[in-house]
Amino acid sequence: FGLQELPYGFPGTSDSFFGDAATQDGWYAVSSAGVLRNNSSTTAYGIDAASGDVLMLAFDLDNAKAWWGLNGTWFTNGGVGDPAAGTNAAPTSITLDGTKQIMVAASVQPGDEFDLRTNSDDWSYSAPTGFSALSTSNLTAPTITDPRAHFATVPYGGTGGDRKVRRCYDSLGTAWTPGFVWTMNRDTGEHGAIWDEVRGGENCLRPTDTTTGVTSNYITGQIEGGFTVGTDSAVNNSGDKQIAWCLKAGGSGSSNTDGSITSTVSAASHGGFSIGTYTGTGSAATIGHGLSSAPDWIMVKNTSNAANWAVYTSENGTSDPETDWYKLNTTAATEDAATIWNDTAPTSSVFSIGTEANVNTNTDGYVFYAFAKTPGLIGIGSYTGNASTDGPYIVVDDGDAGFRPAFLMGKRTDIADAWWMHDASRDPNNPITQRLDANAKNAESSSAAYVDFTANGFKMKQSGTTYNASGGTYIYIAFADQPFKYAGAR
Hints:
Helices cover about 0% and strands about 40% of the residues. The protein is mainly β.
């Protein structure tokens, strides 16, 4: 019985003791004594256990300390263990550096039986002060408890008919009106389309190219509880499968004077997503974004002249992410350019722009979409690949405990590669097999397994360069289907 760092298999062989590996700390009773085992070495610790005894384990994740005990008494290590005071912990090899995950497990001899009691209602003794049962129910409630009221994936079939209505629903089936809509045709190589309520009308942008967009027959506007699409084959080709990803914002927008350039901003009520427009000056400037914290992901597009989509993320695996930018409409690797974000990190009120035409040409119009990590709704982060089909397990970084994704977009940053997108609507069950690319006019592709969506994140199932090259750096943004605290609740 003990602790193990992930990701590692166990037991590896049928006759392994828990504690044989350097990544494991195990306790067991043998020869009338208690033994602590790590990396196949043993240390006397505790007392013998008999049939019917209750073994106890307390683990302090903040300080990587563990205590074992029996029948209500903690074992001794220089003194009686006291988890509440943090004293006399067991010897342990476990170290935490922000990258490790821990599992609790047990192994038994043939013929032995045990009960693993994780529900505190079944315990014989109370948890030490400051400790609680290892249960998602003991997690604090995230900022967003029903992410489906703020983000929706809307699959629909194309009909070719005009002004077809599509609706967004929360977990109770109540329709809500999106302020941001991104659609793609799954069957035919067509441009994607992005619409927002600040620019309004039928003004759509193409994330797949540099153009200033289209003004008719793509996404044609919002209605109460949904949005409408026109007749263009990109959004409504007869017989084609279509998909839309929708976010709730804050209306048509209002003036924001936080930056040196006045912007018009529509911010969601939770403070983690905003839509904004501004007019460039050609000189380095700041833009008010309307979020309640510094954005972790920003997308900017020139709406007056042809230009690349400029993407910023705070989580690109470097110490100075504000020096880098990415192009949503291409496969290009990370580029370093002070003229994009002015080599200045965003603050809780503004983000900075340089003099590059993609973000700031004099008199040109721009739109931006800003995102901040929001517990229970928006996760933004990075990971490093390992070139294995048993790929890295990534806990979605939403500033809290993570969530099961409803949508996931990612990209390799150290070489040129695609922006891949997956969602739980096209693949409600694992493995996730359907893929669209944000940067390309490609029909949907499929694989036996790209990724698994888990209760608090995702696990890579590909070994190739696009998803999981050895040492490769990847960025991602995710929107929640269900917060980890409520895993299995619906």
